[in-house]
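Quick one, probably user error.
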């Protein structure tokens, strides 16, 4: 197969497939040249496609809020979540479209656990980097669990991350346990060494968030503790103790507890003695029976705090850090040296893990470390200053998507119009909105009561936002004129409904508009609006415009002919371009950075336009071709 269809029927878009990116048990993954940053997963045969179709429907309907991170003009998708269904020309479901995870820029989390694999993969040996990756892992799963989904088969081999920026890259999401409108659609696979004890005898389809929380705690423990599994260790005077990791999990043999089970001994590679007491208590909750396991959000917040407590080791500051109680890595190296020195020392070293060695940190300035991906839309994540990080520059947060509040704005549109022309005050229409399902406090914060007389249009008018003067957004004011307070900003990707006009004190014309996506209302200068019917600008006019204006006009031209997923995809890509362009102020040459970002976006829009044109060509008459092979 060399092409797929986005949508069915007359409105479908035909997408040529590019190179094969990978293949698994369920299907193959291809590049999609017409949609940079996207990949197509196609299932092996009809049976596999039918088995997954309901799950893909549920995933598209309820995605986690994990937008791609961006840095230096590059996009880093945090999760390969289905974005749209794909069909063949006959309309048969064959797979789905998803963000492409670049396997060249990402690597398996397994490679970060052991010193030898870090050396082979050229990964940072700095301990704070592993703490940061653990934090970002917990952050991704906090959002996934908030959306009601569970990975179930969670283990380092099934997780990837981007070494350059420390962000996660979660793949094979169609194997997860998904919360659907008609009930849960289960996962169907599980792996030893990461199975919670209570899950051992239960069918995989019955497992939920507790299985994820157990496996997540195991992986965080490995990242923080030299790659040591939390149930690995030895024994003293205990006969018949299990050596298999999954068997030790079932027997509760967790030797790193504050009060470890009798007869258990930690691995000599362990540095758990340097953990903060609260960290050890959280691991006890995760691994000991009859305890409430920490949620992914608890781990994220705790690791946030640990990142602020990191202190450099006075002996090996370029690699070793600790949490203020002494360096566990220096103590580990002393144990290794003692064990190889003479038999007596070896026997003493095997007895128990030595306490962390206390070292004094040299007085040196800390360098800024990577910024953590912000996956909580309501709470920004700060940038931490790590001592000796893998990158000497701050990494930006990924863009935050604005979550829909679920407010039925269309049912309130008439009330908005009444308020706009002065026929209703908030005191009158606030209760009406509440009766329509809109909380009064939300309406008061979200909607703007016009502070000037409006000359209403005979019919509402559709507009697109077209900023001028090199800006990327337009201020939305409470009244007509710059003197009124700014209540929000409208961006290129916003579509608005115009209700009428008003004059500012200087005589300029302003339009009272309502944003189509969430109902936010206010006044915008008339010259910052483009009527949807005028969106198709001549090609010569577009080509002669500056870079960002060319992009705005080409984007509008495509947006005007798009709908459904195509429109959403175009809008998401435009937001990413805006974010990339804003971040150019951090570049050593902002002007060149903007030119590079603009050129790439123009190329993407051109590719989309070509694919759009090709998809609208009449389909060949296959019946006639069958009758006349010459055709």
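Nope, works fine. Designed sequence:
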């Amino acid at each position: 197969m060399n092409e797929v269809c986005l949508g069915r029927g007359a409105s479908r878009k035909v997408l040529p497939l590019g190179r094969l990116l990978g293949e698994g048990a369920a299907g193959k993954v291809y590049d999609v040249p017409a949609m940079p940053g996207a990949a197509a997963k196609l299932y092996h045969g009809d049976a596999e496609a039918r088995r997954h179709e309901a799950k893909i429907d549920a995933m598209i309907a309820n995605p986690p809020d994990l937008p791609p991170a961006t840095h230096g003009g590059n996009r880093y998708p945090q999760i390969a979540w289905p974005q749209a269904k794909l069909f063949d020309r006959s309309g048969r479901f064959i797979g789905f479209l998803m963000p492409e995870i670049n396997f060249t820029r990402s690597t398996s989390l397994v490679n970060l656990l052991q010193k030898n694999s870090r050396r082979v993969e050229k990964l940072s040996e700095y301990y704070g980097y592993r703490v940061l990756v653990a934090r970002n892992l917990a952050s991704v799963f906090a959002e996934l669990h908030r959306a009601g989904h569970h990975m179930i088969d969670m283990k380092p081999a099934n997780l990837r991350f981007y070494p350059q920026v420390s962000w996660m890259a979660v793949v094979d999401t169609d194997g997860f346990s998904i919360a659907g409108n008609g009930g849960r659609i289960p996962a169907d696979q599980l792996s030893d060494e990461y199975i919670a004890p209570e899950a051992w005898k239960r069918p995989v389809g019955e497992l939920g968030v507790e299985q994820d929380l157990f496996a997540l705690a195991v992986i965080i423990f490995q990242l923080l503790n030299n790659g040591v599994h939390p149930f690995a260790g030895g024994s003293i005077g205990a006969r018949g103790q299990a050596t298999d990791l999954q068997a030790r999990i079932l027997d509760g043999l967790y030797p790193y507890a504050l009060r470890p089970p009798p007869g258990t001994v930690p691995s000599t590679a362990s540095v758990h003695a340097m953990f903060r007491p609260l960290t050890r208590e959280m691991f006890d909750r995760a691994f000991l029976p009859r305890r409430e396991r920490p949620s992914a959000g608890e781990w994220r917040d705790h690791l946030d705090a640990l990142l602020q407590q990191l202190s450099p080791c006075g002996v090996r500051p370029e690699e070793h850090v600790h949490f203020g109680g002494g360096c566990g890595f220096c103590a580990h190296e002393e144990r290794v040296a003692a064990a190889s020195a003479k038999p007596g020392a070896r026997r003493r070293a095997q007895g128990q893990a030595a306490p962390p060695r206390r070292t004094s940190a040299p007085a040196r300035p800390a360098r800024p470390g990577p910024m953590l991906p912000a996956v909580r839309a309501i709470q920004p994540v700060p940038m931490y200053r790590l001592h000796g990080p893998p990158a000497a520059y701050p990494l930006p947060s990924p863009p935050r998507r604005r979550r829909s509040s679920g407010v039925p704005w269309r049912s309130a549109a008439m009330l908005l119009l009444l308020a706009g022309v002065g026929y209703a005050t908030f005191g009158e229409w606030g209760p009406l909105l509440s009766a329509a399902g809109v909380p009064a406090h939300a309406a008061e914060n979200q909607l703007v009561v016009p502070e000037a007389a409006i000359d209403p249009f005979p019919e509402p008018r559709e507009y697109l936002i077209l900023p001028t003067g090199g800006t990327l957004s337009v201020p939305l004011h409470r009244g007509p004129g710059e003197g009124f307070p700014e209540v929000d900003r409208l961006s290129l990707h916003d579509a608005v409904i115009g209700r009428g006009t008003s004059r500012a004190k200087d005589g300029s014309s302003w339009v009272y508009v309502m944003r189509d996506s969430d109902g936010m209302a206010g006044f915008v200068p008339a010259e910052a609006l483009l009527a949807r019917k005028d969106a198709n600008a001549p090609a010569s006019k577009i080509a002669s415009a500056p870079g960002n204006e060319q992009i705005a006009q080409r984007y509008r031209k495509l947006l005007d002919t798009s709908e459904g997923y195509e429109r959403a995809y175009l809008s998401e890509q435009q937001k990413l371009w805006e974010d990339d362009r804003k971040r150019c102020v951090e570049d050593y040459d902002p002007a060149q950075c903007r030119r590079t970002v603009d050129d790439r976006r123009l190329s993407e829009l051109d590719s989309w336009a070509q694919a759009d044109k090709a998809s609208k060509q009449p389909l060949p008459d296959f019946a006639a071709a069958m009758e006349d092979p010459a055709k």
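The chain has a mean pLDDT of 77.
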